[in-house]
């Protein structure tokens, strides 16, 4: 007999896993009928329970990320305001299940971006600043084993994030900036901005267009993480992760 999907119940399972720091098996094992549309409804339920929203995030926009988790299409999630770490604040890994860190280019929007035809050029015009970022992922599924629908329901593994100083993006070609991810002083991975859908601004445009049929869009003041540029590295107490992006700067995250 097939199990009926209850969006609130699936959202509650993920919330309980996060609160108890106890990973669960992927939802599609028990609910194979969980498709992408239903998964975004579960994510929306999480969003409605999450308090203030700081912005949005792209997921799985780079070949390195897609290969790491075996999912090959871009997805999106939301950033709760409570997920932001202050620069210099350490990550308390006791609040996490299986944290991983990845480099991001963050967009800080100065104007709304709404509609089905938003372009990368419009994204850049609406962006007041960009910043180097580290996203902390923490899948609520055992060993990061999931399908696209599972990871969408789980808000694309979102957990915490930290941003460097804002930089005005004029005259920076974000496709060409070099990205270096270090863990404990050793280079873990390198990339360029183009790793995210060919252009991080195009990735943000994809998000705006994808939200449009839902009657949603990107709003002035929101932060958008434009997609992990390399595979993410696992972290444990004592680790330090450093991300440097050419022309945007460096940000460091210590784990305790
Ligand atoms: O931000 C991301 O690219 C994460 C998407 C979900 C896959 C993962 O947990 O790495
Ligand atoms: Mg990410």
Structure description:
This protein is an alpha+beta fold and 256 residues long. It has one domain (7-254): Alpha-Beta Complex (Fumarylacetoacetate hydrolase, domain 2), CATH 3.90.850.10. 25% of the residues lie in helices and 28% in strands. The chain has seven helices and twelve strands. It has helices at 7-20, 27-30, 36-48, 63-69, 120-126, 148-153, 200-211; strands spanning 53-59, 75-80, 84-85, 100-109, 127-137, 158-163, 178-183, 186-192, 223-225, 233-234, 240-245, 249-254. The strands form two sheets. Strands 1, 2, 3, 4, 5, 6, 9 and 10 form an eight-stranded mixed beta sheet that branches. A four-stranded antiparallel beta sheet has the order 8-7-11-12, with no helix packed on it. A hairpin with a 2-residue loop joins β7 (178-183) and β8 (186-192). α5 (120-126) packs across α7. The radius of gyration is 17 Å and the shape is globular. The model has no long low-confidence stretch (mean pLDDT 96). The site of magnesium ion (MG) has 8 residues, from β1 and β4.
């Amino acid at each position: 007999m097939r199990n009926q999907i209850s969006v609130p119940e699936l959202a509650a399972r993920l919330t309980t896993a996060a609160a108890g720091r106890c990973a669960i098996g992927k939802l599609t094992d028990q609910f194979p009928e969980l498709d992408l549309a239903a998964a975004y409804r579960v994510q929306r339920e999480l969003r409605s329970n999450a308090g203030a929203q700081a912005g949005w995030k792209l997921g799985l926009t780079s070949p390195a990320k897609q290969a790491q988790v075996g999912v090959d299409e871009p997805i999106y999630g939301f950033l709760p305001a409570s997920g932001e770490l202050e620069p210099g604040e350490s990550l308390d890994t006791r609040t996490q299940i299986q944290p991983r860190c990845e480099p991001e280019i963050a967009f800080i929007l100065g104007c709304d971006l709404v509609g089905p035809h938003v372009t990368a050029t419009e994204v850049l015009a609406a962006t007041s600043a960009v910043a180097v970022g580290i996203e902390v992922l923490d899948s609520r599924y055992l060993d990061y084993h999931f399908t696209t629908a599972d990871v969408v329901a789980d808000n694309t593994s979102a957990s915490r994030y930290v941003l460097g100083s804002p930089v005005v993006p004029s005259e920076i070609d974000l496709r060409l900036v070099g990205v270096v991810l270090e863990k404990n002083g050793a280079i873990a991975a390198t990339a360029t901005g183009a790793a995210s859908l060919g252009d991080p601004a195009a990735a943000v445009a994809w998000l705006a267009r994808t939200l449009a049929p839902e009657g949603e869009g990107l709003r002035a003041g929101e932060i958008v993480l434009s997609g992990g540029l390399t595979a993410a590295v696992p972290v444990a107490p004592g680790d330090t992760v450093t991300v440097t992006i050419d022309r945007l700067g460096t940000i460091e995250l210590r784990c305790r």
